[in-house]
Amino acid sequence: MRSNKMSAFSPLFHIFRITKTNHKVQWSKLKVQISMLSGVMEMIARCGVSLWLVPALAWTGVCFGDPVAWVMADLFLIPAFLWLYKHLKKEQVR
Fold first, then answer.
1. What is the DSSP letter of 52?
2. How many CB atoms lie within 10 A of CB 65?
3. I need a surface site. Which of 3, 24, 39, 53 has the fewest CB within 10 A?
4. What value does the mean pLDDT of the chain take?
């Protein structure tokens, strides 16, 4: 009798394992995309600073390069974090 119960739960276990693995792969892809897009935002900011602020402000423009890049990355990362946090909270309630 016990083996019949275990054989009934075996397919359920495999379905659960496959869905959890798929879920982890989806989140890892999302993490890669978020980190890549924040890097793109930083690069856009650095290019903008080098094209407009450096000719206008000389050395002071160069000094603004890193802070402007960090702010641009944060302009993307903060909304991404809030969206992801909200999504994970909804998923946790289910």
1. I
2. 16
3. 3
4. 79
Find the distance separating the first CA and the last CA of the chain, reported in whole Å: 33
- Cα–Cα dist 87/4, whole Å: 39
Is the Cβ–Cβ distance between 63 and 50 less than 8 Å? no
What are the tens digits of pLDDT across the range 50-70?
999 999 999 999 999 999 999
- Which of 35, 70, 34 lies closest to 49, judged by CA? 70
Helix (H) or strand (E) holding 80: helix 65-93
**Lookup: tokens for 87:** 């999504």
Q: CA 58, 61, 64: angle at the middle one, nearest 5?
A: 160
**pTM of full prediction above 0.85:** no
Rounded-to-integer distance, Cα 33 and Cα 70, Å: 18
Is residue 69 within 8 A of residue 46, CB to CB? The reply is yes
